[in-house]
Hints:
Blueprint: H1 18-24, H2 47-61, H3 68-76, H4 81-97, H5 109-116, H6 118-129, H7 134-144, H8 151-162, H9 169-179, H10 182-189, H11 197-213
Organism: Sclerotinia sclerotiorum (strain ATCC 18683 / 1980 / Ss-1)
Domain Retrotransposon gag: 105-182
Protein name: Retrotransposon gag domain-containing protein
Amino acid sequence: MDSSQPPTEPVSFTSIGAPEQAAATMEPRRAIQVSTPDLFHGDRSKHRAFVAQADLYYAFNGQLFLTQMQRILWLISFFRGTAFNWIEPFFNDLMTKTTDSQLNENMKPETRRLFNTYESFRQGFDRAFGEVDPDHMAERALRQLKQTGSVTTYTAKFQQYAGRIIWDDDYLRSQFYKGLKDIIKDKLARAPKPPNLSELIETSILIDNRFYEQ
Length: 214
C-alpha cells in the first residue's frame, strides 16, 4: 500500500506535489526493467497479486510518474472486463468534465473522491475488488491445502497463505505436516523431528527430491 500522504489540493494531470518536484530536479533516470502488472479482470482472488505487482513496479520506477493522477490512470490501463466496467463511468466523467486539468464541482462526488489522490483511488478499488475478510479466507485455505504435486509447490502455496495470518510456529508446523502426502509423512516419521517450520520444510523438500531422483 502506498504510504504517501494525500495532498492538500486536488490532484490534476499537470500539478506536481513536493515529492515529485524534488524528483524532477534530479538528473533523468532510465526506467529499470521491471514487469508491468498482469491485466486485471475483476477476480477478487487475483486482487492482492495485482496490487503487489503494481506496487513493485512503482517502487523501482516511481520517478516516471510526475503526478498522482498519472499513477491512477496507469493503474486503470490494466483494467479489463468487470474491473473496467466498474471504473468506466467515473473515468468518462473525469474525461468529459475536466477543466484546465482540475477536478471540479461539475463531476460526480464519487469521481472527485476516487481521483483526488492515489490513496483514495486505491481505497475505492480495494473496497470494490479486495477479498472479503482476507484473514479468514487465508486460514480456511491453509486448513484445506493438500500436497498434490511436489513439496516445493506445496510449500509455495502454504507460505502464500501463512504470510497473511498470525499463527505461531508450532501451529504452522502442524498444519504443514497435515497437508503433506502420506509417503512424505512416512519418511519424516523415521527421522528426527524437525524443531521448527523452516527445518520441517527443508527436510520435506529433501525427502521429496530423493523420490524424484530415484
